[in-house]
Amino acid sequence: EPKLSGDFATLMGWADKVRRLKVRANAETPLDADTAKKFGAEGIGLCRTEHMFFDPARIGAVRQMIMSESEGGRRDALAKLLPFQRDDFSELFRIMAGLPVTIRLLDPPLHEFLPHKEEELAEVAQSLGADLATMQRRAADLSEANPMLGHRGCRLGVTYPEIYEMQARAIFEAAVAIAKETGKAPVPEIMIPLVATRRELELTRAQVEKVAKEVFAEAGQEIEYLVGTMIELPRACLTADAIAGTADFFSFGTNDLTQTTFGLSRDDAGKFLPYYVEKGILPKDPFVSIDPEGVGALVQIAKDKGRSVKPELKLGICGEHGGDPASIQFCEQTGLDYVSCSPYRVPVARLAAAQAALAGGSDRTA
Ligand code: PEP
Ligand code: MG
């Protein structure tokens, strides 16, 4: 049972009095959300919805969705997934009890959703009424040489709009139901992943807004919500002024931003990076601590450009760096509003945020 007590709780209380940065957690399961809350998280800063899709009860429908060559087939599969997602979001809203919940729409590694084994292919063939050879061809068509630079993030939402529409419907239906039941509406912060251009955000934001209108009309009730974007590609940083026109918030995805800034695969970083760090070729592992001259400079550019068109733009970070004290100090100095980290790092982040505030340097007041 995670809980803070005694002297540690007292110390945390002091830290909370001096820190300016808010601390949220990355969580998608009820257990993680609950743990985060007990450790003092002030919201969920990243709910990675693709993790929810691997549940054995739904992976069949997920494969059906991906493998269908028709919109109708995808919509059938998505109709099966909608109740699951509605329950997922209801639970998170309930646990977080009015604190902000940032829900990132699907950002799948497409290759992890594709059927590989013979029996998986046979099952999806049956669900789509297709033959095995057609399914094998489709799987081959969808497989990519570099999935992390491929058909993922908002690119999937742009090409298959019905996916994000289903997720938006689940979010709004869950939020409206809780508002009716408790009299207090959750405020979902819907986040679009891997945006490189303003147009991608415009298209996906329009999908979300369309569904919001539909659900509010059906329910006879409206709730507030935000739509923002991950900033995790160099191009998004360099065009952040254009993107900010369509975004209520930015959250820096420093895992992908590090990968794309260094041109260094995050999945293979362990291979030679330790040698670089040991020899002092790089002062630190850039996947752990923000490299101020590279990723840090891009974050600064995005912040300046974003706030130049929208001074109130809310800024957070949800990459692994959000739980790293040196990076938290960078976030304080840059004037971000919050960091989001894994639930067990929340206490460390609260202390680091306090330390960073005492060290001074933010150009943004609490
Ligand atoms: C990131 O890229 O920093 C991020 C938070 O998203 P993910 O790790 O899920 O790609
Ligand atoms: Mg990412």
TrEMBL record:
Annotated binding of substrate, by residue: 48, 104, 232, 253-256
Top-rank taxon: Bacteria
Occurrences of domain PEP-utilising enzyme C-terminal (ranges): 5-356
Coiled coil: none
Biological role: Catalyzes the reversible phosphorylation of pyruvate and phosphate.
Included stretch of the parent chain: 524 to 889 of 889
Annotated positions binding Mg(2+): 232, 256
Native organism taxonomy: Bacteria, Pseudomonadati, Pseudomonadota, Alphaproteobacteria, Acetobacterales
Name of the featured protein: Pyruvate, phosphate dikinase
Protein family: Belongs to the PEP-utilizing enzyme family.
